[in-house]
Every structure is written in structure tokens, then in C-alpha cells.
């Protein structure tokens, strides 16, 4: 309970800082502060929190599904596949509405994630580093395909936008799709025990009565939808789905149902903190939150690889 209270308090403090920080001075009296908050600051803060929570949850699911803690959506080709879906619908239906683009991105992400899952079944499990390396190559191939298609069709600028996860363009009316992440979080909480059983492997999960195929499809669907919504709205943010679940697991053990609230708050808080740092480091200019988190996430990942894993009694 104490850890949950601390994480929520820290997240609220970060949210307050995010609302207060910006190139526009809310207390100068020259602008309508309420309008700036409602149109820009509040949507931006909520978007960063929802994106961080969604990527952290997607990381939990994919790690349980492939039984490897060193995998995250960015190492499964999911964002790249979502970009391919966006490119295809942009070429075929240039004036497609946002829900149509999200559907295309979700379908592409689902196909790409399913392809990685099939590939992961063929990779030996003896070395846990092997699967992330295979995923890195797989994601690189999909990313190269997306960039090649964009180059041929003169849409490279779109790919650059989707790759750079940043929140400066988030305004009221342009982030609301991210509330789907909240619905996915509720769904995942209800399915937490079934997702946990996926981490035991197919044979053991089936012996415990789990409908393994159905649960895998649901899990891949959650990963694809969460990643696609985030890519469509703010772009890709690396390392969140890798670092957050591992930190929580080290602190709290492997009880997924108990860990999910902390996973959500920690993912939301770290991405929001990265966005705040991006606003402050080159004031009044901004560094994308994805760039900031990539640096922080790389350091955290190296620490996770080398730090001893604590024991959890009971």
C-alpha cells in the first residue's frame, strides 16, 4: 500500500509540474490561462501518462507471452508494422479519418506482432539474449521496409513523425484515442491470472486448464492495439515496455495482478518525466520525450542487466 501511495503521489506531482511548465507564461496576464490549460497543457499531460501506461502494459503482456523479460514491443516489430499499416492506408485512402488510420495501424501491428510470436517459437530458449537480438533484426527489416516504401512514395516525413515520440503537437481533440489504453488496462487486470499462466509455457498452461491459443490471441491483440494507438497519436517511444515491467518485478516479485497498478503508474510517470525534461533541457525549445527516455532507458536497462535480483519471500 505504501508503494502504491508513493507512486500515485509522485505521479500527481509530475502532473502538476507538467501543467505549470511551458514556453507560455500562464501568470503573465497576457493570455487566458484557463484556455491554455484546457487546450494544450492538460491534453499533453494526459497523453504522456496514457502513452507511458499503455507501453508499460504492452511490455508486460509480450514478456509473458514469449517468456522472455528482455523483450518489449519495440523489439517485436510492432511499431514498425503499425507504421507500415499507416503508410498503406495513407497511400490507398489519403483522406482517411483518424479511426480508419488507427484500424489500419492496429491490423499492421497485429500482423507484425503475430509474425514475431511465430518466429519466437523457433528460437532456442537457452540464451535469453538470443530472442531480443532476433527481434531487433526482425524490427529492423520491417523498419527498412517502411522507410523504403516511404522513400518511393515521398512520405519519409510521415515516418519521421511516427518514429519520434513527442507530445508538443498534442491538443484537445487530437489525443482522445489514447483513452483506449485505460480500457485495455481494465481488460488486462481482469485477465491478469490468464496472462500470468502464459509465462509458464504452453504445456504447463494447458495442463492447468488455460485456453492457451485464445489467451495468446487476446494478449497479442492488447499489445497491437495499445502500440498502434500510441504510434498514431504521439509516435513510438522505446524502452518503456522493457524497463518498467523489469523494475516492478524486481521491487515486487511476479504477482501480475498486484503489480499492474504500479506498472501503470510507473510507466506513466517515467514518460511524463521525460516529457518535462525535454521541455527544460533546451528551454524554450523542446527535445522529444522519446529521445530523453531512450537515454534514460538505456541506462536503466544496463543497470537491470548487472544489478543482482533481490529475493522476495512468500
Specify the structural class: mainly alpha
- Beta-strand percent range: under 5%
Helix content: over 70%
Q: Quick one: overall form?
A: globular
The CATH topology of the domain at 38-48 and 58-236 comes to ABC transporter involved in vitamin B12 uptake, BtuC
Number of strands: 0
- List the total number of helices: 13
Q: What's the name of the CATH homologous superfamily of the domain at 38-48 and 58-236?
A: ABC transporter involved in vitamin B12 uptake, BtuC
CATH class of the domain at 38-48 and 58-236: Mainly Alpha
Give the SSE map.
Layout: H1 2-20, H2 33-66, H3 78-92, H4 98-120, H5 130-152, H6 156-163, H7 180-190, H8 192-198, H9 202-207, H10 212-233, H11 240-252, H12 256-281, H13 289-306
Helix pairs in contact: 1-2, 1-12, 2-7, 2-8, 2-10, 2-11, 2-12, 3-4, 3-5, 3-10, 4-10, 5-6, 11-12, 11-13, 12-13
What are its keywords?
single chain, 314 residues, ABC transporter involved in vitamin B12 uptake, BtuC
Describe the structure concisely for a colleague:
The chain has 13 helices and no strands. It has about 325 residues and is mostly helical.
How would you describe the overall organization of this protein?
This protein is mostly helical and 314 residues long. It has a domain at 38-48 and 58-236: ABC transporter involved in vitamin B12 uptake, BtuC. It has 13 helices and no strands. The chain has helices at 2-20, 33-66, 78-92, 98-120, 130-152, 156-163, 180-190, 192-198, 202-207, 212-233, 240-252, 256-281, 289-306. Helix 2 packs across helix 11, helix 3 packs antiparallel against helix 4 (98-120) and helix 5 (130-152) runs antiparallel to helix 6 (156-163).
Amino acid at each position: 500500500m505504501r508503494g502504491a501511495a508513493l507512486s500515485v503521489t509522485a505521479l500527481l506531482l509530475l502532473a502538476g509540474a507538467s501543467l505549470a511548465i511551458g514556453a507560455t507564461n500562464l501568470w503573465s496576464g497576457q493570455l487566458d490561462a484557463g484556455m491554455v490549460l484546457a487546450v494544450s497543457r492538460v491534453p499533453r499531460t494526459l497523453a504522456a501518462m496514457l502513452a507511458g501506461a499503455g507501453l508499460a502494459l504492452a511490455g508486460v503482456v509480450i514478456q509473458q507471452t514469449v517468456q522472455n523479460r528482455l523483450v518489449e514491443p519495440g523489439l517485436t516489430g510492432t511499431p514498425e508494422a503499425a507504421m507500415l499499416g499507416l503508410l498503406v492506408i495513407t497511400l490507398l485512402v489519403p483522406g482517411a479519418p483518424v479511426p480508419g488510420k488507427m484500424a489500419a495501424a492496429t491490423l499492421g501491428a497485429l500482423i507484425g506482432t503475430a509474425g514475431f510470436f511465430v518466429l519466437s517459437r523457433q528460437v532456442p530458449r537457452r540464451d535469453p539474449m538470443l530472442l531480443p537480438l532476433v527481434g531487433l533484426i526482425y524490427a529492423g527489416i520491417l523498419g527498412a521496409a517502411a522507410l523504403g516504401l516511404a522513400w518511393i512514395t515521398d512520405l519519409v516525413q510521415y515516418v519521421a513523425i511516427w518514429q519520434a515520440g513527442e507530445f508538443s503537437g498534442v491538443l484537445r481533440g487530437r489525443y482522445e484515442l489514447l483513452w483506449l489504453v485505460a480500457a485495455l488496462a481494465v481488460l488486462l487486470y481482469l485477465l491478469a491470472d490468464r496472462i500470468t499462466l502464459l509465462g509458464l509455457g504452453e504445456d504447463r498452461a494447458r495442463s492447468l486448464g488455460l485456453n492457451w491459443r485464445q489467451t495468446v490471441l487476446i494478449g497479442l491483440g492488447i499489445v497491437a492495439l495499445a502500440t498502434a494507438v500510441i504510434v498514431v497519436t504521439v509516435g513510438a517511444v522505446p524502452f518503456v515496455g522493457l524497463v518498467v515491467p523489469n523494475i516492478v518485478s524486481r521491487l515486487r516479485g511476479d504477482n501480475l495482478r498486484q503489480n499492474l497498478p504500479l506498472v501503470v503508474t510507473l510507466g506513466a510517470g517515467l514518460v511524463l518525466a521525460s516529457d518535462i525534461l525535454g521541455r527544460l533541457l533546451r528551454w524554450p525549445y523542446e527535445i522529444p520525450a522519446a529521445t530523453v527516455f531512450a537515454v534514460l532507458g538505456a541506462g536503466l536497462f544496463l543497470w537491470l542487466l548487472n544489478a543482482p535480483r533481490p529475493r522476495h519471500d512468500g
